[in-house]
Automatic annotation (TrEMBL):
UniProt xrefs under InterPro entries: PIN-like_dom_sf
SUPFAM superfamilies: PIN domain-like (SSF88723)
Superkingdom of origin: Eukaryota
Protein name as catalogued: XPG N-terminal domain-containing protein
Source organism: Physcomitrium patens (Spreading-leaved earth moss)
Length: 110
């Protein structure tokens, strides 16, 4: 994962829109996809090993992911990404087609 942040990647797109449009736009982010991408990057980066994760829904229960000491690092990274996407880009998170309550992530990981 490069050190370029989500804000850096999305800011040129956001800057081109008028403030009126930004207030009315909601970007939908699938929480499964977000977890899948962030988890896979964390596993590759810290364990120096590539895994074939086929189901985004199973990322948090994947045996190699559960065993790694970097699991909490990855969860913290996902939470930070969600915070940036929500606060700076007005994103709404969905899980299985329904709005995803952010507290649900705490329930999954406790």
């Amino acid at each position: 994962m490069s050190r370029v942040g989500i804000s850096t990647l999305l800011s040129p797109l956001i800057q081109r829109m008028s403030l009126y449009k930004i207030e009315r736009i909601k970007i939908v982010v699938d929480i499964n996809a977000l977890m899948f991408i962030m988890s896979k990057c964390a596993i590759r980066h810290h364990l120096k090993k590539k895994f074939s994760l086929k189901e985004a829904n199973d990322v948090l229960h994947y045996e190699e992911f559960e065993r790694t000491e970097y699991g909490s690092y990855c969860i913290d990274t996902i939470k930070k990404a969600m915070e940036i996407l929500r606060d700076e880009f007005y994103c709404v998170f969905v899980f299985d087609g329904k709005t995803f309550p952010e507290k649900q992530l705490d329930i999954w990981t406790s």
